[in-house]
Design goal:
6-stranded antiparallel beta sheet, about 30% helix, 3-stranded antiparallel beta sheet, extended, Barrel_Baseplate_J-like, alpha+beta, Baseplate protein, 4 domains, Elongation Factor Tu (Ef-tu), domain 3
Length: about 375
C-alpha cells in the first residue's frame, strides 16, 4: 500500500487553505513570522513526526522492510536459526630476532599490527606446537630455544569480519607483549573472517525456511544445513552411501567450509549439520554428512612480460590469483587450465605477454575431482 504522505510545506498550505475557507472575507496574516504561520509550522512539524512513526510501524510489520534488530525479532518468532555472528580471521605470523643467545618466550596475546595501524592480530594458543610452553606468560605461549632465530605461530585478528582477512605481508609492526623480537610478518593471507549475517541473507533464509516446511524435501535438507553456519556450500546426492556407492533409501550431503583449510569441515561442524538434517529428514531415510574428497592441485607456469614491466613484481600476485581461483571452486567443479591462464592474465592484462609451460600436478590437463570431490590449491610456482 502506498501511503498518502505530505511534505512540511504541503501541510502548512493545507492548514492555510482550510482556515481561509472557514473564515471567508477575512484577511488572514499567514506570512512568515506571523503568529498564525508559526502555529501552522508547529502543527506541521508534529504531523511530520506522526507520519514518520506510521512509516516505521508499517515497516516492521513486514520482514522485507524490517532492518537490524527488527529482522532478529522476526526470526525469533519462528523456528529459524538466529542471525549468524561474525567470525575472526586467523593465520600464521612469523616472528624473527636478530640474535638468539638464549631461549626467548612469545606469549599468547603478543600483538602485531599493519603498517598503518588499522588492523591488529594477537598470537593465540596452539598446544600442539613444538615450542608450546604453559610457563610462558599468564596464558601460556611459545618458548623458542637458543640459536633459533624465527618461529611461525598462529594469530587471530581482534576485529571480527572480513576486514581481518588481510593480505600476505600486511602485518609488519610489533605491538605489546613481544619483548625481544625484532620483526614480524604474515607469510600468507589471513582467512576465515566473515561478517555477521546481513539482513538480506536472513530474509533469504527465512524464505527458504517457509519453502521447506514440507519436510523431507531436498530444500528442507539444504535449508537445515545452511542454518548451522554461514558461508558453507553443499552438494546433495540421493540414493548413495557415504562412499558414493548406490544405496536406495540413503542420501549423502557433501559439505565444504571455505573458512577451513582445503574446505574440509571439522568433525564438530559435521556433527552439528547432521543433527540439523536429522531433524527434518524423512522417516527411514538415512543421511550421511561428509566433507569433500580433496584433490590437491600443484600448479607450475611461466610468464613472459612486455617491455617496461618488472616480471618479479608480478610473480606473487599471479600465484595469489591462481590460488584464489582454485580455492573458489565448488564441490564437483573441475579445474580448467584455461581459467588458470585467465587468472594469470587478469593480474596485469597489459603487462603479461604470454603464459607458458602450464602444468597441474605435472600434467598439462584439466582436473576433475568427481561429484563428491573438491579441488584445493597446493603450491603455485610462477617463474
Amino acid at each position: 500500500m502506498e501511503l498518502n504522505t505530505r511534505t512540511h510545506d504541503q501541510l502548512v498550505q493545507q492548514q492555510i487553505t482550510a482556515m481561509q475557507a472557514e473564515l471567508p472575507g477575512q484577511d488572514l496574516n499567514t506570512t512568515s513570522g506571523s503568529i498564525l504561520r508559526s502555529l501552522f509550522n508547529a502543527v506541521a512539524a508534529v504531523m511530520l513526526w506522526l507520519q514518520l512513526i506510521a512509516y516505521e510501524v508499517l515497516s516492521v510489520t513486514r520482514l522485507s522492510t524490517s532492518t537490524g534488530t527488527d529482522v532478529d525479532s522476526w526470526l525469533a518468532d519462528w523456528e529459524v536459526q538466529q542471525r549468524q555472528a561474525a567470525t575472526y580471521a586467523t593465520g600464521v605470523t612469523k616472528w624473527e630476532r636478530n640474535s638468539a643467545p638464549r631461549a626467548l618466550g612469545l606469549p599468547v596475546g603478543a600483538m602485531c599490527r599493519t603498517d598503518d595501524g588499522s588492523r591488529t592480530a594477537l598470537v593465540i594458543a596452539d598446544t600442539g606446537h613444538d615450542y608450546w610452553s604453559a610457563d610462558v606468560g599468564s596464558q601460556g605461549g611459545y618458548l623458542v630455544p637458543a640459536d633459533v632465530y624465527a618461529v611461525d605461530v598462529p594469530a587471530e585478528a581482534i576485529e571480527a569480519g572480513v576486514a581481518g582477512n588481510v593480505l600476505a605481508g600486511a602485518y609488519t609492526r610489533i605491538g605489546s607483549n613481544a619483548s625481544g623480537w625484532d620483526r614480524v610478518s604474515n607469510p600468507a593471507a589471513f582467512s576465515g573472517g566473515v561478517d555477521a549475517e546481513s539482513d538480506e541473507s536472513c530474509r533469504a533464509r527465512f524464505r527458504a525456511y517457509i519453502a521447506s516446511l514440507h519436510r523431507g524435501t531436498g530444500i528442507s535438507i539444504l535449508t537445515a544445513a545452511a542454518s548451522v553456519k554461514q558461508g558453507l556450500s553443499f552438494r546433495l546426492v540421493e540414493n548413495v552411501d557415504a562412499a558414493g556407492n548406490w544405496s536406495p533409501g540413503r542420501f549423502l550431503l557433501v559439505v565444504s567450509d571455505p573458512s577451513a583449510t582445503g574446505g574440509q569441515p571439522s568433525s564438530e561442524l559435521l556433527s552439528a549439520i547432521y543433527a540439523a538434517v536429522d531433524a527434518v529428514r524423512p522417516v527411514t531415510v538415512v543421511p550421511a554428512i561428509i566433507g569433500p574428497l580433496r584433490t590437491t592441485a600443484s600448479v607450475r607456469l611461466t610468464i613472459e612480460v612486455n617491455e617496461g614491466y618488472d616480471k618479479d613484481t608480478l610473480l606473487t600476485p599471479i600465484a595469489q590469483a591462481v590460488t584464489a581461483y582454485i580455492n573458489g571452486l565448488g564441490i564437483g567443479a573441475p579445474l580448467r587450465m584455461s581459467r588458470i591462464t585467465n587468472a594469470a592474465f587478469g593480474v596485469s592484462p597489459d603487462g603479461i605477454a604470454n603464459v607458458a609451460n602450464l602444468t597441474v600436478n605435472g600434467i598439462a590437463g584439466d582436473v576433475d575431482p568427481g561429484k563428491l570431490g573438491q579441488v584445493v590449491a597446493g603450491p603455485v610456482v610462477v617463474s
